[in-house]
Design brief:
By secondary structure, the protein is α+β, with helices and mostly antiparallel strands.
Amino acid sequence: MTDSTTVHESVRAAVEAYVSAVRAGDPLAVREAFRPEAYMWGYLGRELVSAPIGAFCQVVAADSGERAWTRTYTYDIRSIEVSGEVAVAVLDERGYQGEDFTNHFSLVREDGRWRIASKTFFRTAGPAE
């Protein structure tokens, strides 16, 4: 296995940790997938959202109860590109809390560990949008 393959697999593992955390509804694990100062931007329909990642952790924490959406949730890590100690990854989610999203993550490797530094996302427009 080449060093490039190992690095890509490490970035993929960081994105998979995010996926596992949101699927489990575990805000602490979501928080751990991100750098402490991480921020997110994106669109929920026509509404621009901009907030520290802690706000997203609150959304994950509020998603309690039956969590029926997890049965039909699927995802695909569409791409990963690494440049030295930084990377970008694109994650497509289908059925996250009943919605479809495309997420663009910027990741940074510090002390050998990849973590998400920012999340930029787009929710696929629903019938009312």
